[in-house]
Design brief:
Length: about 270
């Protein structure tokens, strides 16, 4: 019975994994197979292992390298900001006592119920008044105002035992020392999860960068790759190559932090 259950479990996991990874495999298979204006009617399952599409992407699109730099700048800067700021804010809401703490936290969390599309017009008007439209700052500054990370870090830090902080203070740690030597090491699973979510969200963001930036050299990668689609004819080989190359940083970023991310899942399940 146990052997049968294991076989069924592994079979389900393998089938689910294949289904989940097939779109990514299909993307890379098309990117590594020479395709021009018309994509094949049948899915390409075995790639030709040629870089023709990638070479044409780099030679045809003169701003592609700039798009990659713009996306990396926005995603890494937003990730670093949220990791630092949200950890400190989460610690303050979870462990410190100050007036209207719960009211302020509820007010912050309630903004998560506001659809992001509702904020586009105010964001555009504010960005235009600041003179940052058509620049990377129009994408970066709104990316730093999301409050999901504060909620995530507050909920995780709240589960940490307060005795560890008291012990650190008895040993002479300042408030910053408590955060640095106690809170941050114990919160690495939550911080890694926050970093992955923030990086992927900003790397894949499309609608707001499309609205805020009109100059091709200031596009992010998602907007730049979409702009390669023509009105009457589309070079699908370049589109597939651009999508495949755009997915590589996300894969690398997840692999770098997956150990902490999985630790966070296990720790959350145990709690």
């Amino acid at each position: 019975m146990t052997v049968t259950r294991s076989i069924v479990t592994w079979s389900v996991l393998i089938v689910t994994t294949v289904i989940a990874l097939f779109p990514m495999y299909w993307l890379f298979a098309n990117a590594l197979t020479p395709i021009t204006a018309t994509p094949p009617l049948t899915p390409i399952l075995v790639p030709a292992w040629k870089l023709d599409n990638v070479i044409r992407l780099l030679t045809t699109s003169k701003h592609y390298t700039r798009w990659v730099v713009n996306s990396l700048t926005v995603s890494l800067a937003a990730t670093l900001w949220h990791v630092v700021f949200d950890t400190l804010a989460g610690y303050a809401f979870a462990k410190r006592r100050f007036p209207l703490r719960n009211v302020l936290f509820v007010a912050l969390v309630s903004t998560l119920m506001v659809p992001i599309h509702v904020t586009f017009i105010p964001l555009y008007l504010i960005s235009r008044s600041l003179g940052i439209i058509d620049s990377i700052w129009a994408i970066l500054l709104p990316a730093s105002s999301q409050v999901f990370g504060i909620f995530l870090m507050r909920q995780f830090i709240q589960t940490l035992p307060g005795e560890l902080e008291d012990a650190a203070r008895i040993d002479g740690c300042s408030e910053i020392g408590v955060v640095r030597h106690v809170i941050v090491p114990l919160s690495m699973p939550a911080i890694a999860s926050l970093a992955i979510f923030t990086f992927v969200r900003n790397w894949n963001d499309f609608l707001w960068p499309l609205i805020a930036v009109n100059r091709p050299q200031e596009f992010t990668l998602t907007v730049g790759v979409a702009s390669l689609q023509g009105e009457f004819m589309t070079d699908w080989g370049i589109i597939f190559a651009g999508g495949a190359v755009a997915s590589i940083p996300i894969i690398i970023f997840f692999l770098l932090f997956q150990r902490y991310f999985l630790d966070g899942l296990r720790l959350g399940a145990l709690k």
